[in-house]
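Question: I have long wanted to understand how a fold can be written as tokens. Here is the record:
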Amino acid sequence: MKTKDKILIASLDAFADEGVGQISTNHIADIMDISPGNLYYHFKSKSEIIAELLRCFTTDFVTFFKSESEAISTNQSMWLKLTLGFQLMDKYRFIFCESSYILNKYPELRRLFAKAMQTTKTAIDTFCQHLQKQHIVNADEQEIISLGNNMHLLFTQWPSYIAASVRNGLIKDVKGSDEHLFIKQGVNQILNLIYPYLNNEDKELLIGIQQSA
């Protein structure tokens, strides 16, 4: 693996665990046991690292939701797809947990962040349209638009919601997907949005999937 990729992986983990404000480029260099000069050869600043991680997230998210969409033809495959989607959000959770801090500290990233939000929104809309075409959900065009909006909201804001709940003592402190809190509850929230658009048989199947997960 190239040093640049190792820097991104180390930064992603550090930002998620400690927070962007608590991690400097020197911290990242220490974690990797390389010199600051070696890190600066690849990234001139922490802003550049965050920008590249934002691009990686956008690419990963869009690629994930486009891949094997044809295979989603049942409630079980839909549940699996959403679960894997929340695992991806967990991986990049620092972006959304700290979006206000990042955009205030590094205003040069605002355009890139806006592009990421629009691109991921389009991917979610396409996913919802596929559910409609596969007759997994029975919804008209306006309902599909609304479903896409709400799903995108949940995907992108769930990391912040969990972080705020921990800070305010509403839930105990967990790291990402520990105890399946982040993923399982997030998926269930999405499924609750989809539930009204299923036929009675599929509703029963979906409840069974949720209970056994």
